[in-house]
Specification:
GO terms for molecular function: deaminase activity. By secondary structure, the chain is an alpha+beta fold. The protein has helices at residues 47-64, 85-93; strands spanning 2-5, 20-23, 26-29, 72-79, 103-108, 118-125. It has 2 helices and 6 strands, in the order βββαβαββ. A 6-stranded mixed beta sheet has the order 1-2-3-6-4-5, with helices on one face. Helix 2 links the parallel strand 4 and strand 5 (103-108). The mean pLDDT is 97.
Amino acid sequence: MKKIITTTKAPAPIGPYNQAVLTGNTLYTSGQIAINPANGELVLDSITIETKQVMENLKEVLAAAEMTFENVIKTSIFISDMNNFAEINSVYGEYFDNETAPARETIEVANLPKFVNVEISAIAVK
């Protein structure tokens, strides 16, 4: 059985999907991009600020499922330019303890929704 997880503290879906789905004790989040949930505007001032908004959106989706970054076991990071990896990784690292950080993959892609620079999804377990 699946439970749909939603929150107004993260961007509303822009297509036929949900912010996250909880099945059993496992949460699968949709990819988050740098949309400010308060006004629906993209936050693209810099790759650092953009990544921070992505992580804050992900944080709110986790919170809606009564989880935190401590529950995350796997992330997927999609970036439009591998040259931005160091800056993205630096912000991403602020949200995880190195000792218990999740498994991860980082993939460079040709384009992302709304032509943003970074999108991150997660799998978490209670």
